Amino acid sequence: MKVEGVLRVITAHDIPQNASFGARAKKSQLILAEKEVRYVGEPIALIVAESQDALEKAKDLLVIDWKPAPLPQEEEVRSVKFELGKASNAEDLQLVETTFEFPSLQARYLEAESGWVEFKEKDESFNFHIGALLSESQRMWLSQVLGVSHEKLQAKESHLGGQFGGRQQRELIAFLAIAAHLTRRSVRLHLHQETQDIGSYGYAGKLGIRYDPESHRLVELRGELRLDVGSYEGNAELALQKALEHVAGIYKFRYVGLEGKIILTPTHPRRALKGEGLTAVTWVTEQLVEEIAKKLEVKPLELRIENQREDFSGLDQVLEQVERYERPFELVPIDRNRPLWDEKFIAGRGYGFQMFQPTTLKEFDYSEVSIDLQPSGSFVIRTSNLTLDLRVKSALCEIAATVLKTHPKAFTVEGKMRLDFDKPARRETYPEFYYMAQATWHAAQLLKERLIAAGQKVLGTPHVILKDGAVADQQANRKMGYRELGFTHSLHDLKASYILKGAERPHGCAAGAVSRVSFHPLTGEVRVESVKVILDAGPVLYGKGLEIEVDSAVSWAMATLFSSGNREEQPIPTPLDGPEEVTVLPIEYKVQDYSEEQPELFGARGIADVVMSAVLASLVNAIHDAKGVVLDKIPMSLEFMYPNRRKSTVHTLNFKRNQ
Amino acid sequence: MLIEWTLNGRPMRSEVSPFQRLLDYLRTDLKLLGTKEGCREGKCGACTVWVDGQIANACLMLMGQLAHKEVTTIEGINEKDRFTPLQEAFLTNSALECGFCIPGMLMTGTALLHQNTNPSRLEIRESLKGHLCACTGYQKILDSIEGVGLPPASEGQARMRVRKP
Prior knowledge:
The complex is a heterodimer of chains A (659) and B (165).
Chain A: E1 6-11, E2 45-49, H1 52-61, E3 75-85, E4 94-102, E5 114-120, E6 125-130, H2 136-146, E7 153-155, H3 169-183, E8 187-190, E9 199-200, E10 202-212, E11 217-228, H4 236-246, E12 255-264, E13 270-271, H5 278-296, H6 300-306, H7 315-326, E14 346-356, E15 367-373, E16 379-383, H8 390-404, E17 411-415, H9 433-459, E18 464-467, E19 470-473, E20 478-481, H10 482-488, E21 495-500, E22 509-519, E23 526-536, H11 543-562, E24 581-586, H12 607-627, H13 638-641
Parallel strand pairs in A: 6-7, 9-13, 11-12, 16-17, 23-24
Antiparallel strand pairs in A: 1-2, 3-12, 4-10, 5-6, 5-8, 10-11, 14-22, 15-16, 15-21, 18-19, 19-20, 22-23
Chain B: E1 2-7, E2 10-15, H1 22-29, E3 48-51, E4 54-57, E5 70-72, H2 85-92, H3 102-115, H4 121-127, H5 139-149
Parallel strand pairs in B: 1-5
Antiparallel strand pairs in B: 1-2, 3-4, 3-5
Helix pairs in contact in B: 2-5, 3-5
């Protein structure tokens, strides 16, 4: 049967290579299902049509010849053990333990995915216009799927967006590319709320800490972690490994013994959204530590300082700073014998800590940045990453402007594919800001030297510095603007390029968060009053980036903690719900000047995960402090808010928005 | 139904179904994609436009309601290709991550600044309570609106203001 306006119906057999999404897994999802489907909503066919009406008609006419298979049960596909140190046989240890559940969180409807691909018949190339980034590895993967050269796959820079990479995007770009390839037309695709139902991994398990009540030492950490990945395993093993490595947080245990399992369930497949495991477990350990401090009747911060790991350089500074800022504030303990109606708001304060030390020093591929002075006196920054968003661009401008002592508006940034640079090998180059920022800083430093050399020649003095968009004679009151310099000088000498490759990462990341909440005992209203984050992220080039990470972490933590877990009801905090005050205090390092020697790297990896974990843990502990009850399930349930009341009689105001 | 209305300062005569949503008409028929489609039920504020100088959710407005009204979208607040001071402030503060909610925030923020040139932090929070942002967090957005609301630096030039709706 033919429907007018329908160009093609594509099934798995039509795709040149129906590849899987997760390379390492035993059970990985294919682009379009072949032979079997494992969950309701799994894509089995693509309809390409000229209009929405034709699309709907064809969809109704689609006949799928299928037989129901026995409903798949839960299946354990992988088991990972993590052990550190030696188990202790001491009998005088005490134990605190808890079960916990961290749900699968859904991608929010606000982050709708859509895009289009432009097919050029002349050279049979594809130009992607997508909101997120098209990374080098995705390009290589797509070229395999389509059986075309990767040079035919280009992407248009998006002005905004692009910090999500690898969320829903892999389906989107695969569907777009296949549809355009097989119909030889430009194609657009918009994923609706229902079709982009994607969640993060769901975690559950049990953790217990054994401690010595005499010496106040945390001795053993044992537990089990169960990771629900939905129908397909994907890259869950990496996330589970990260989670297990970080359960112990910042604490020095004599023994850590953890078991992790990856479980397949007949539900929508999930991914490592917003944090790879650290975020799901940190709050549990931190809450147990808080509980131990209460039992021992010591200050929670003191207990942490006594038990901190010693092999991590920035951690002691973080703890020291937290103590310095928090010592003057002593909260008045709550008198829990007073009647409920006597209390207006019960205040609570909580701490949360986490750190990230990259365990392997992976050699990453190049990031190349070149900066050229133009005859107009402005600069062009070219990066080896194809897609850059406006935020990254403005940050790179700011970094270069700081070094070259001019205004950020004097710079424009162009994303160029690595193809345009001299590159012998192609490997994974995820366009991380971290690498680009460093390459930009170094390129700017090289250009600075060249500008100074040119200035010395023109001004006839060795005492030349860069100042206010000009080369200036330090001793006499003379200067020459970059524009004049560019005009009078050979521009070939006034450009610099820097390739970053094979570098190690000397800095891990550590963060401590302190949150204050107030809790209304009658209405159940929880107010997050303030969040303060002390962060060791190595020498930082772009300080605003840290503020953004923290801001975003606070929003995420609040949505996670107060949401119902139900997709329909999962709230996003409004500006009124958020805390009035969010403070970020980075541990300051001197940014190293350029020298002939191998420079030390800036910044740290894993900042977002560490900050999110610490903020969520601090909020959980603040609520724990206010309510005096251990939270074993996120989001907070009604039973947690009102343990002694009947569910049907309770009306909650989780946020302030209804006031 | 033929309606006469004004869009971004331009008189319009449109043959539309009175029950068509303004949001659909803007995005599908006129290809004005700056107004975003989020929840389609008035929760998220991504589709905020000005109707006769008042902020409104385009997903909740029907074309039949717009006869002789003046509508301004995000495309209509710029003078030529220049950013407004508020847009500049968003960029300077890096107050955006995916950028999806920003057009709506800018419409409400600009409207607030027209009414009150120096709003307090609480007033800004109040005015933005109909907007949701799932990735950036709100502090930078509040900082941006607050920053524009401050009086201009004494020796600097007077700041450009956008036309009042």
